[in-house]
Amino acid sequence: MTTSPTVLFRLHDSPVGPLLLAASDAGVHAIEFDAQRHPVPRGPHWRHGDHPLLDATAAQLDGYFDGRRKAFDLPLAPRGTGFQQAVWHALASIPYGQTRSYAQLAAHIGHPTATRAVGAANGRNPLPIVLPCHRVIGADGALTGFGGGLPTKRFLLELEGALPASSTPGDLFAA
Fold first, then answer.
1. What is the pTM of this model?
2. Which phi and psi (to 5°) does residue 77 adopt?
3. Which residues on neighbouring strands pair with residue 11, listed in sequence order?
4. Taking a C-beta distance cutoff of 8 angstroms, is the pair 30, 127 a contact?
5. Range list of β-strands (E), the chain
């Protein structure tokens, strides 16, 4: 019988609101937005606390948000089905500042007809931003569902230069 590792978690302030960061000696388990649609299941092995990987995750996220980091270098420990793991692994191959459609992601993992299943796995990504599910958009270029909400998805894509910055209402000089 295998025992689950103790997972330590804490909140981290970010430009997109508080993020719950969770890690163990096995790697980073979760990054969750304040109103996460599909939170990672917790168990009795989850505790509030500190871990060096939480510090590293927070530092790398801060670097991403201030434009110094375009890729993450963290040991990851997401839990999911084999199909979900394949989708999450493929997310990591989408370059900073670029987007892919669900169909392109499905083709990339060798399941070109599984766009809905890819969308479902994308929606259950326990490590958003680090595994950049925000870079997956509709085939028509539309921003589609995102666990952190569409305004957060837009913010992340604008931060990366994958979308033009939104104009504010009343801006006469907006393109």
1. 0.87
2. -140, 55
3. 20
4. yes
5. 7-12, 19-24, 27-32, 46-48, 100-101, 136-137
Count other C-beta atoms under 10 Å from residue 64's C-beta: 22
The catalytic position among 133, 137, 156, 159 is 133
- The CATH number fitting domain 7-65, selected from 3.10.450, 2.60.120, 3.30.160, 2.60.40: 3.30.160
pLDDT of residue 164: 67
In the chain, the amino acid numbered 143 is L
Buried b (16+ CB within 10 A) or exposed e, 74-94: bebbbeeeeebebbbebbeeb
The string of DSSP codes covering 140-156 is TS-----TT-HHHHHHH
Q: Is 118 exposed, middle or buried (0-12, 13-18, 19+ CB in 10 A)?
A: buried
In CATH, the number for domain 82-159 is 1.10.10.10
Residues 100 and 83: their CA atoms lie apart, in Å, by: 18
Tokens of 116: 């809905």
pLDDT attached to residue 171: 38
Is 133 catalytic? The answer is yes
Question: In the chain, where are the structural domains located?
Answer: 7-65, 82-159
* pLDDT averaged per 10 residues in sequence order, the chain, 175 residues: 81 96 96 80 89 98 97 96 96 95 95 94 95 92 85 95 62 35
